[in-house]
Amino acid sequence: MKRIYIHEEYCIGCRLCEIHCLVHHSESKKIVKAFKEEFPRAMSRLVVEEQGYLSFALQCRHCEEAPCVEACITGAMHRDPETNAILCDQEKCVGCWMCVMVCPFGVIKRDMEIKQVASKCDLCQGEEVPVCVRNCPNEAITFEER
Amino acid sequence: MSLSLYPSEFRIERDPERCIVCQVCVRQCANDCHVYDEDDDCIVSNERNCVGCHRCATLCPTNAITITQNPSDFKTNANWTARVIKDIYKQAESGGVLLTGMGCDRQLPSYFDRMLLNASQVTNPSIDPLREPMELRTHLGSKPERVDFKRTGEGFDLTTELSPQLVIDTPILFSAMSYGSISYNACLALATAAQTVGTFYNTGEGGLHKDFYPYGENTIAQVASGRFGVHAEYLDVAAAIEIKIGQGAKPGIGGHLPGEKVSEEISQTRMIPVGTDAISPAPHHDIYSIEDLRQLIFALKEATGYRKPVSVKIAAVHNVAPIASGIIRAGADIVAIDGLRGGTGAAPTMIRDHVGIPIELAIAAVDRRLREEGIRHRASIIAGGGFRNSADIVKAIALGADAVYIATAALVAMGCHLCQKCYTGKCNWGIATQDPYLTKRLNPNIAQRRLVNLLHGWSLEIKEMLGGMGINAIESLRGNREHLRGVGMTQNELDILGIKSAGEAW
Questions:
Q1: Spatial distance between the Cα atoms of B313 and B486, rounded to a whole number of angstroms
Q2: pLDDT score at B450
Q3: Which of B336, B454, B456, B460 has minimal Cβ neighbours within 10 Å of its Cβ?
Q4: B18 neighbourhood in chain A, CB within 8 Å
Q5: What tens digit of pLDDT does each residue of B167-196 get?
Q6: Could you tell me if A32 lies within 8 Å of chain B, comparing CB atoms?
Q7: Which residue in chain A is spatially nearest to B414 when comparing CA positions?
Q8: Are domains A1-59+123-146 and A63-120 of this chain identical in fold?
Q9: B371/B354 Cα distance (integer angstroms)
Q10: Residue ranges per domain, chain A?
Q11: What is the dotted CATH code of the domain comprising A63-120?
Q12: What pLDDT score does B302 carry?
């Protein structure tokens, strides 16, 4: 499957990926509205890790053997049969946070504002290229089949 | 500390309707122009620090930022212009020499803009480069006086021994920019782009990082007055050697890479201790005459077994034609001439803006002098200094250059916004800096792609212009001044350029 790969040597720590991720997962999908008019504000599904001049955007790795899927008590966390992406069915999620506990990358977040559910990268289902990749100004994340 | 009289050069306008306080600008400005105010959840501008590099405006996801010149004017005065007054304020505060980067930005006449190109109509056909072959390949190096052949059973054998030549697929080379003045990623982009396009890049006086040895076939290694990074392997790896005597942006003076920029990698490459200033003296301390230059040219030729052409780079100064003649007689295979508008990473402003002559006049003067002396074939001429587009290149070649050096245009292709603050080491575009926070902003893959695109586009345009003139090889344009006409020039200027006025027929 196509995955997001990280090239940390070119990450400039601008966090545009975070911003565009938030916008994509907002109600309106419009940048100014998402930030200024939608409350609670949508969450970015990725994190930018930074230490000194080293930085990189980290989002769900969509593991082959995903601990979050195994740990999920309701079956909300599942592998999409078509795209192979790990997705969280928000209707089923009860917010027990087991997935947050077991994720080896720390990329599943608690969405406390909206529904008390787990929030994670969905590879922008329906988009040809995830918005974080499309909007990275320095090609520090790429979406490719390897 | 007393009040600075130096006004902000720029205004940072932030549209509150658009600003989403995402802080991309805060994170991207190396000059701390944008500061996040936590109490009011807003971003405030520190305009005094703004250099007008447009990094923030370019990356702002909502286009909320506009950078404009500070409209606040001094009282109008034709002599004491704002620029003059501000320079005096700056020096009154610092007590030092005014420093700047890039090329001369004064409003001097541009002869490129006053020359117009010819095209075929009726009496001779123009050529469509998309349908017919069009040759841009250029050979740089000394050409023989005559060629002798020997008849063999199957055909002919060349008996004349040819001098080593640099073969370029388009008459454009990347000019000298050292590792130190620009970042590792910028050097890598230039090297890989030169390899892709089939041309050369130039190491400048900063030596050659070992990582770039694989691009040696596309490298011109410079030997400058500081002799930084010059060793047997360096000369061996490169395809040609260039002795740098002068630079268009700062004729007659040397160079200075501040110690803060001399990192471990640069120290290895330049062969100097970490953190020490790299000072290139104004003259080569072993060259005080053409005869001395000849010694160095032949020392380098000996060292490389006469397998590589040797170029000598000079700034275009008043006496450029006889100097070029002397350089060729000293044994150089290529003469590189850098004009007044040539760029630099750092130069005293007064030198950059007031010393030297425009490259157009220098090319014409040198080409004519060499023809008069019957030695034009003994060396190729590479012209540099402020080439902005393919038309400038075509005009330079029609004036007599063999090829051109571009550097400012290459940097602009990589992202440079000409803020002229290269000497501060805080290049927000990751080009003229060694700060690890900033250097990674230049992704060499993207930069290489953009450089290749630029050369590709310019080459296509050159072919179009040649085709329009009814010429199918760049060789036929060289020194072909009948294809140039001048507008708005004095007779004397036309004579020096060796061109007719617009309206005059053949």
A1: 28
A2: 98
A3: B456
A4: 32
A5: 999 999 999 999 999 999 999 999 999 999
A6: yes
A7: A138
A8: yes
A9: 29
A10: 1-59+123-146, 63-120
A11: 3.30.70.20
A12: 97
Q: Do B62 and A20 touch (CB under 8 A)?
A: no
Token pair 């077991």: residue: A102
What amino acid is encoded at A127 in this protein?
A: E
* Radius of gyration of chain B from its Cα atoms, rounded to whole angstroms: 24
Q: Do A31 and B27 touch (CB under 8 A)?
A: no
Helix (H) or strand (E) holding B484: strand B484-486
B440 interfaces chain A, CB cutoff of 8 Å: yes
For residue B161, count CB atoms less than 10 angstroms from its CB and return exposed for 0-12, middle for 13-18, buried for 19 or more. Answer: exposed
Structure tokens at A85: 């992406």
Interface size, chain A vs chain B, as Cβ–Cβ contacts under 8 Å: 48
Query: What's the pLDDT score for residue B255?
Result: 87
**How many Cβ atoms from other residues are within 10 Å of residue B18's Cβ?**
15
Collect all residues with Cβ–Cβ distance below 8 Å to B280 and sequence separation of at least 6. Answer: B205, B224, B225, B226, B228, B254, B255, B256
With CB atoms and an 8 Å threshold, state whether A137 touches B59: yes
Q: Which residue of A5, A10, A15, A142 to mutate against B (max B Cβ within 10 Å)?
A: A10
Chain B residues inside the 8 Å CB shell of A11: 440
Q: Chain A residues with CB inside 8 Å of B446's CB? A: 138-139
Angle at alpha carbon of residue B6, lines to B1 and B7, rounded to 5°: 120
Assign domain A1-59+123-146 one CATH number from 2.60.520, 3.10.450, 1.10.540, 3.30.70: 3.30.70
CA distance linking residue B230 with residue B228, whole number of Å: 6
Burial (Cβ within 10 Å: 0-12, 13-18, ≥19) of residue B503: exposed
Interface of B with A in 441-480 (CB under 8 A): 441, 443, 445-446
Q: Which residue has the higher pLDDT, B493 or B153?
A: B493
> With contacts defined as CB-CB under 8 Å, which chain A residues touch B441?
12, 138
Does the CB of B63 have a partner CB in chain A at under 8 Å?
no
Chain-chain contact of A15 with B27 (C-beta, under 8 angstroms): yes
DSSP string, B275-341: T--EEE-SS-TT-SSHHHHHHHHHHHHHHTTT-S-EEEEEE--TTHHHHHHHHHHTT-SEEEEE-TT
Using a pLDDT cut of 90, give the percent of chain A over it.
87
Q: A115 pLDDT band (50/70/90 cuts)? A: low
